[in-house]
Amino acid sequence: MTATIDDTIRIDTVVGAGDGALLELPAGATLRIVDLHGNQAVDTLLYDAHDVDNRYSAFDTVREQGAVYLTTGSRLLSTRLDELAVISDDTCGRHDTIGGACAQESNVIRYGEHTRHQHACRQTFLRYGAPAGIGQRQLGHNINFFMNVPVQPDGALKFDDGLSGPGKYVELRASRDLLVLISNCPQLNNPCNGWDPTPVRLIGRWA
Asked: Are 74 and 97 in contact (CB under 8 A)?
């Protein structure tokens, strides 16, 4: 049997633990994020490719869908209530969008002064977002794909082991031209990465 080449694959890259990426997707494209080893949190922000101030809003997404967690069918909305993307496929089943991204400052508050100089997702966002004009004012609450953050009865958040496994994936379908900003989380101080950050694979497809 002759192997066929999928000529719709335009992006196929592995992002190392703690590294990041900035991807540009045309409307209608899909982006599959593959958890290669399992239990890895992938912090993600979405932007209108033509106006980075029109960015993903966790608050509006949660309110409009009436659910705290994201999965297949979830509409990812912007601060202007524009639909940026839809989760079109999901083999993990639940993703967090309220826990936020780790930062050096929050690490110190949560885990102690010894964590002050550990690398964090906020740094990765700023580094990879800079060429597109994404700075501190354009950062907001992000999506944490594969991350498990149960909401307690008193409203508190708990960072638990992820629900993902090797090879599980989530796929987004772009509803408009998008910039996707990713930090493959380096967090070592809670179990969101199973205490061992690992690489993920990004596969983008469009005609």
From this structure: no
Beta-carbon contacts of residue 80 (< 8 Å; ≥ 6 apart):
54
Are 113 and 164 spatial neighbours (Cβ–Cβ below 8 Å)? no
Query: How far are the Cα atoms of 26, 72, 81, 109 from residue 50, in angstroms, in the given order?
Result: 11, 26, 16, 36
Is 30 within 8 Å of 110 (Cβ atoms)? no
Tokens of 40: 């890895």
CB 204 within 8 A of CB 9: yes
Can you tell me whether residue 25 is helix, strand or coil?
strand
Cα separation, 143 vs 97, whole angstroms: 4
Q: Compute how many other C-beta atoms are within 10 angstroms of the C-beta atom of residue 85.
A: 27
Q: Which of 73, 75, 95 is nearest to 85 (CA)?
A: 75
Instruction: State the burial class of residue 153 (Cβ atoms within 10 Å of its Cβ: 0-12, 13-18, 19+).
Output: exposed
Count CA atoms within 13 Å of residue 163 on its CB side: 17
**The token pair that represents 166 in the structure block:** 């090797």
Nearest to 86 by CA among 169, 173, 203: 173
| Residue-wise DSSP of 84-112 | EEEEEEESS--BBSSS----HHHHHHHH-
Give residue-wise pLDDT tens across range 128-145. 999 999 999 999 999 999
Tell me: the pLDDT tens digits for 30-58?
999 999 999 999 999 999 999 999 999 99
Distance CA 26, CA 206 (A): 8
